[in-house]
Amino acid sequence: MRAAVLHETGQDKLEVHDDVEAVGFGPGKVRIRVRATGLCHSDVSAMSGVLPQPAPFVPGHEGAGEVVDVGEGVDGVAAGDRVLVCWLPACGTCAACRRGQTQLCLAGFMNAGTPNFRRAGGDLFGFAGTGTFTEEVVVAAGCAVPIPDDVPFEIAALIGCGVTTGLGAAINTAQVEAGSSVAVLGCGGVGISAIQGARVRGAAQIVAVDPVASRRQAALGFGATEALAPEELADAKQRITAGEGFDYVFEVVGKSATARAAYDATRRGGTLCVVGAGALDDHFPLNMFELFFDEKRILPSLYGGGDALRSYERAVALWRAGRIDLEGMITHRVQLAGINEALEHMRTGAALRTSISL
Predict the structure, then answer these.
(1) Helix %, strand %, coil % of the chain (to 5)
(2) Cα(335)–Cα(324) distance, integer angstroms
């Protein structure tokens, strides 16, 4: 079968091979025929080494498709079911799951160290324990989440990561209050989803901040009340909030410099929500006085900060009701052979989300 492979961390292009085999099928596992997958910035971060991932590997973790076969003991899905791929499944038994913080379950991360694929040259890993830039993938049963028949595969794929992460940051983690002021730094797929989440929660002002003009323009169509380049943020803080700062600021880039700018844009007693996935060696500078004196809440948000299954259901309900726009987030569509074109669109900021058909 075909799959896009990164052979060494740091390479900027993928190679599409047609001799890849999905491995590991057996008890508790599900084989999925991938029909659509999104390109998330985390895939690019794993390719560059910002996010830890053994290589060689098949990127992709935002996918949807049909169940081909199920192993012994699997009773939640059956062959023929339409599913999305959950890259962070909850085991249900660890301390985090028992506390109700299923997004902190480490079971899914442990899968990243087990090969998901094989070709003549040896074993291949799947990014985040999945690897959806391929025609078929074998995953743990908890990674295969049934989706309603009216949800297209490309929409379900987005819900599998970017939409859930951004919406959840605004709704679950920050719990944006109606009438509040919001700034979102970074307006790719996750940032646009955070903007839509803030709109759903009733924010009065939603300021989108991004260096790419096309993304700023797009943000206005998803609920932003205005869109600015990064160098305009300080003036906007003065103009909109009389210099006090925004009630909620979302950092959706994953860099310490952006997080510092987001902190400075947050009012005293306000909320900084850190959504971007950054590097282990990129440290966020704060001094102890400002941390104490400003009393700003710093809330990291992993995968939307809530139960993934509930978040998927909520995203579908909001989409059906016309409260959020998911089709409009897909600005580019390619076949697997065009994966490197999709990577370039993401790196330059030309795409909000690219849907890859398999």
Answers:
(1) 35, 25, 40
(2) 26
Checking DSSP bridges between strand 29-38 and strand 205-209, what pairing results, if any? Answer: unpaired
Are the CB atoms for 355 and 157 separated by under 8 Å?
Answer: yes
Residue 166 exposure: Cα atoms within 13 Å on the Cβ side: 30
pLDDT in tens, 187-200: 999 999 999 999 99
pLDDT, tens digit, 9 for 90 and up, residues 146-167: 999 999 999 999 999 999 999 9
How is residue 326 written in tokens? 């998911």
Closest CA to 25 of 145, 144, 138, 143: 138
Rounded Cα distance, 69 and 29, in Å: 9
Q: Read off the tokens for 103.
A: 């997004």
pLDDT at 107: 83
The answer to whether the CB of 25 falls within 8 A of the CB of 115 is no
- DSSP letters of 161-210? THHHHHHHIIIIIS-PPTT-EEEEE--SHHHHHHHHHHHHTT-SEEEEE-
Distance between CA atoms of 125 and 117, rounded to whole angstroms?
6
The values of phi and psi at residue 103, to 5°, are -70, -10
Task: Give the contacts of 231 (CB within 8 A, at least 6 positions apart).
Answer: none
Give pLDDT tens digits for 238-280: 999 999 999 999 999 999 999 999 999 999 999 999 999 999 9
Which residue blocks in 75-183 are alpha helix, DSSP H? 95-98, 107-110, 153-159, 162-168
Q: What is the reported pTM?
A: 0.96
Q: What percent of the chain has pLDDT over 70?
A: 100
Q: Which residue has the tokens 């057996």?
A: 26
